[in-house]
Structure formats: C-alpha cells, structure tokens
Design brief:
The complex is a heterodimer of chains A (256) and B (376). Chain A has 256 residues and is an alpha/beta fold. Chain A contains nine helices and ten strands. The longest helix of chain A has 16 residues. The termini of chain A are far apart. The radius of gyration of chain B is 28 Å and the shape is flat. In chain B, helix 14 runs antiparallel to helix 15. The chains are: A alpha/beta (256), B mainly alpha (376). Chains A and B meet through helix 2, strand 6 and helix 3 of A and helix 11, helix 12 and helix 15 of B.
Chain lengths: 256, 376
C-alpha cells in the first residue's frame, strides 16, 4: 500500500490476501484453475478437499513457495511477482506451519525461534530471546527451550514450529495440514494452540482434514477439487447443507 | 480352582551378584578372545605375530639405536639399530630447510602464534571463537606473511621463498590448502546446484576437469602454465604456484564432498527457511550448510588428511617440503648410511602419522558432540 503502482484500491484495505484468476501448472499438469478468493483481515479460512485437489498448492502460492503462471496474488497489498525481493518482503509478513514441521535440527528450540527475528528483522539477540520465550510460553513448552527438535514429540515440535512462525510477528498465518503427521493423542494440543491463535484475531488459512476444527473456528470453509474452488460457505451451512454434488460426496466420504 | 485370584507379590526378590563368568577380566577374555575355536586360533596367531615382530622393532628403536654421535660413523657400525643421532643433527634443517639460521626465530614465532590461534579455534566450548576465526582467517595470514617473508619497513630482512623448506613448508602448504579449499569447495558445490545454468555449467566443468586430472598434472600446470598466461611482471612466486594448484585441486574434491551433504538436506529445510523470509545467502549460511557440513564431516576430514599427504608431491616442482628435506639430508656424506635412511623414513612416517591421526581424532570428537544434540 506504499506506492501507487500497486493496483490496490483503498476500499480493499481490509483484504489480507486476494487471488485474482490464478492459474498454476506443474509441467503440463493444470494444478490451479482460475482461483478467485479474497481473505479479509482477521478472517479464518479452512481449505479442504481430496488429496491432489490443489489446496496445499494454493496456500504455498501465498508466500511464493510455488509460483503461479497466470492471474495475480496480492498479499497485504503487495503483488507477488517473480521479484525475489518482493517475495521475501511478503514472506516476512506471512508465517507458515508445515505438515512435516521443518524445524532446524541443528539448532535448539529457542534458536529456531530467534534465527529469523535476529537475522531478518535485525532484532537484538536479547530482545529476540525474550520474545521467543514469551511465545514458547504461549504454546506451553517454555521448559523445552534448550532442547533440540529431535528430542521433542511430534506435537511439541509442531507447537515450536508455530512459535517460530509467530516470532516474526506475521500478519497472516498459513497452516499446511499441521496435524496430518501427528500421532492421534497429539492432535488436540496443536489444534488448541491454533484455536488460541484464532481467538486473538490472526488472519489464518488452514489446510486441514480436521472437520471439527473447521466447524468451530473457521469463518468460511473453502472446498477444492481438481484444482478448482467448488464451494465456499460458512461452516454450518457448508457441513449441514452442502450445495455442490462433489462437496456432498467428499463430506460423505470423510465423515463416514 | 474355583476362586481365580489376581497375583499379588508379598516379598521383594533380594538383589544378587551376577554369575562369575558374566563380567570381569576372565569373562571379557572368554567373550572377546576365546569365544570359539576359530577366535581362539586367531588370537593365538596374532599374539605369536606380535611376539615375533614387536620386540625386535622395539630393540631397533631403543636399545640398539645410536642416540648421540658426532657423525655417521657409529650408525654405520650399528646397522641393527636406529640412528636417532642423525635426526638430532638434521633437526633444524628438517624444520626450516635453508631458511637463514639468524632469522629462524621468525618461523618459530609464526608457528607458535598459529598453533595458539588454531587451539583457540578448535578448543571445545572456547569463548569468543568468532574472534579466533577472524584472527585465523584474516589477521594471521597477513602477520605470517610479514613475519616469514619479511618486510623492509618492519626491519625484517626479506627471505626469498627459494630458501623456505622443511616442516615449515609442509605446514604452510597444508594450512593454505585446507583454509582455502573448503570455502572454495563450498562455493563450487553451491554453484553446481545453482538454478542459473551458466553458473552450474562453469562449476561442473571446473570440478569434473580437475577431478579428471592427476594431482601431479595440476602441479605442473600451475608451475609452468600459470606464468605463461600472466603478464611477465605478474609472474607468481615459485612457492605460490603449487599452492594455487593444490588449493584448486582439493577444492574440486571438497566441492563433491559438500554436494553430497547438500543432497542429504531435505526440501523442507529450504522451505522452512524461505518461509521465514531468509534470503538465499542467509538460508545457506545459517540453515543448509551447517547441516550439510555436519553430515559430511568425516569425508571432509578424510580429504584434509589426503591433502596433508599430497603436500609431499610439491617437491616435484622444486619445493623443499619435509619429506624432500629428509631426502636432502640423506645426501650428506658425513651421515649417509643404510640405517640413516631407514631411520629418516620411519621418523617422517611418525610425524605424518601424528598430524593425520590427531585430525582424525578431532573429527571423531566433533562428530560425537554433534550427534549428541541432533538425535533424540
């Protein structure tokens, strides 16, 4: 929103993320087909759909981990182009939590959380550590700060990953199937952490199969299939009265 | 039984000692040396071999040896013993080559400072290692050059590199090769995995070309070709040429080693770093390379050890390294004799072994301390 060349209109200032006619191909495979979606600030979006439907690809486009080939994506008013500077600028404001945690195994939990603040945000080490400890407190594992990721359980690692992303004070958080590689008894602790995050008004896009979480936390649920958005609706009508045949089929399959 | 009652313990089992043949010296012998017929036989054969080989060797090195003598006469008479007197007499030459006697303190000072800085750098949990690294990689090379080569302004007479020799040249060559080849190798490895085709191609051509050529060829190239390509007034120093050769040569091998480490790093690590907004150099320096280097540390040290051995080859382009100094010392008619040659090579072997073995031990130590943190 700084320079006039960016095609953001004033009345869209409350739009955190905008997909405008986005297409993406992997080689000749058409992975995203004409995706249009506006995420408002503070909005919680849950994306669901069968595997290979493009939901991960969709959120990976938000921070430039994947490149789209047609259409435009605006994140916090900045258009994602191939300009790596601009992508880095967006990445600083967008936190991401992965299915496989992707913590840095050679660094302690605390160092994982302070690395980017110190080197990217140029925050003094002392200050970064205080902030990271406060975040570890928030995800309820301050006592693990000096350990290495390999010494923690999956649920604890994922909470560290959330704290690490939050340490950059992002405006938007992306979750790419954050509970899919966890043992069942650890899913709740991660979902609770995400719930707490939703309560403080964080803008979130969550790709997940946790339908209970979706119903409870989401403002809107996005259903994707075959690279297209099929249906977008508030959670209650989405689950109780799905409109599209493919949505109904999908919900029947996962809710047994 | 009509009443099925759950089992409840009433008294604890007393703690007891393990059976005799479970631990202790006898048990160790039985499990490790005499566990079976074949293992007993092997043990006996090796014990026999040791009895046959070790005592004569020890006698050769100690009781039969000539420890002090003014010249080689005593050694020529006691050919069944080592001639340590020869090492003593030639010790200074083996260390410094033809470096002028009056100026040798400069080499001593340089080596002492270097040793101290390296110790600081490698000592586990030493404080302010960052400063040690800065000193070692930036301040020390300049200081060492000024001290050893000399500088009119500092009042140190210039000593031509033609006079440099002995252990000092071996250490210098090894150190320069190690210090420069690893960073260069890292750059080449990153280049080989670059997304820019031109960079990638250049790195691949360099690495494959150097790896496909014997080290001696590289040395000859550096020695004879380098001056041809450069303007006459730039002709590099006689000592510098093989140094450049050895750095380029080992960098290519280092690059392949580092590339192996880079390939062991999962894609998620890159994505985790990128998602945090780390740009490429930061991502590589803070996240990817530390992990990649830890993975291939044994290979890198293996390269260092090989490099240390390869320094002996610089003698063929006219540098007097430690081994070449030893060969020169044999030619002294005052000392020449068969036991002198044997002693010299045994001593040289021991010196090379001491350096390489300590490198290997240190890397094993680092591996252990790295493993402590990473695994669960």
């Amino acid at each position: 929103m700084t320079s006039g060349e960016l095609p953001t209109r004033r009345d869209q200032d409350d739009v955190a993320i905008a997909f405008v006619g986005v297409h993406k191909w992997y080689g000749s495979f058409h992975a995203l087909r004409n995706v249009n979606l506006r995420v408002r600030r503070g909005e919680r979006i849950v994306v669901c759909g069968p595997s290979g439907s493009g939901k991960s690809t969709l959120i990976r486009c938000v921070n430039g981990l994947e490149e789209h080939q047609r259409g435009s994506i605006f994140v916090d008013g900045v258009e994602l182009t191939r300009n790596i500077r601009r992508i880095d600028e967006v990445r600083r404001e967008v936190g991401m939590v992965f299915q496989t945690f992707n913590l840095f195994p050679h660094l302690t939990v605390l160092e994982n959380c302070t690395l980017a603040p110190i080197w990217v945000r140029k925050i003094p080490r002392r200050e970064a550590e205080t902030m990271a400890m406060a975040l570890l407190e928030r995800v309820k594992i301050p006592e693990q700060a000096a350990k290495y990721p390999g010494q923690l359980s999956g649920g604890q690692q994922q909470r560290v990953a959330i704290a690490r992303a939050l340490a950059m004070s992002p405006k938007i958080m992306l979750f790419d199937e954050p509970t899919s590689s966890l043992d069942p008894e650890m899913v709740k602790e991660v979902l609770d952490t995400m719930r707490a995050l939703a309560e403080i008004g964080m803008t979130m896009i969550v790709v997940t199969h946790e339908m209970g979480f979706a119903r409870q936390v989401a403002d809107r649920v996005v259903f994707m299939d075959n690279g297209e958005i099929i249906e977008i609706n508030a959670p209650d009508p989405f689950f109780d009265d799905p409109k599209h045949e493919r949505t109904r089929l999908f919900l029947r399959q996962i809710l047994h | 039984m009509a009443q099925s009652i759950a089992y409840v313990r009433e008294s604890s089992e007393p703690e007891d000692l393990p059976p005799d043949l479970y631990q202790g010296a006898v048990a160790w012998l039985k499990t490790n040396l005499f566990s079976s017929m074949a293992s007993s036989l092997t043990t006996l054969v090796f014990v026999g071999l040791m009895i046959w080989v070790v005592p004569p060797l020890v006698a050769w090195a100690t009781t039969n040896a000539v420890w002090a003598a003014p010249d080689g006469e005593a050694c020529r008479q006691h050919q069944d013993g080592a001639c340590w007197a020869f090492i003593g007499a030639k010790f200074d030459y083996l260390r410094f080559g033809s470096y002028p006697s009056a100026e040798r303190w400069r080499v001593n000072v340089t080596e002492a400072i270097g040793g101290a800085v390296i110790l600081w750098l490698l000592w586990p949990n030493a404080r302010r290692r960052g400063i040690a690294a800065l000193l070692f990689f930036f301040a020390y090379p300049i200081l060492a050059f000024l001290l050893v080569h000399g500088s009119e302004r500092l009042g140190l007479p210039i000593v031509d590199t033609l006079l440099w020799g002995g252990m000092f040249v071996t250490l210098l060559t090894a150190l320069v090769a190690i210090v420069f080849s690893l960073p260069l190798g890292m750059l080449l490895a990153l280049g080989r995995r670059s997304q820019l085709p031109v960079v990638r191609l250049a790195a691949v051509i360099f690495i494959e070309f150097v790896r496909g050529v014997p080290f001696i060829t590289v040395l000859f190239m550096a020695n004879t070709m380098l001056p041809l390509f450069l303007p006459e007034q730039w002709t590099p120093d006689r000592l510098l040429r093989p140094l450049v050769g050895i750095v380029l040569f080992s960098a290519a091998y280092m690059a392949e080693e580092v590339r192996g480490g880079l390939q062991a790093i999962r894609r998620g690590q890159y994505e985790g770093a990128m998602a945090l907004g780390l740009h490429y150099p930061l991502m590589m320096a803070l996240v990817i390379l530390p992990q990649a280097l830890a993975v291939v540390l044994p290979g890198i040290v293996n390269n260092f050890v090989g490099l240390f051995m390869d320094t002996t080859l610089v003698s063929i382009v006219g540098m007097t390294d430690f081994l070449e100094a030893m060969n020169n010392a044999f030619k002294d008619p005052v000392w020449s004799g068969p036991s002198v040659t044997t002693t010299g090579y045994v001593f040289a072997g021991m010196v090379y072994f001491a350096f390489c073995y300590s490198m290997a031990r240190y890397s094993a130590f680092v591996e252990r301390s790295l493993a402590k943190g990473r695994s669960a």
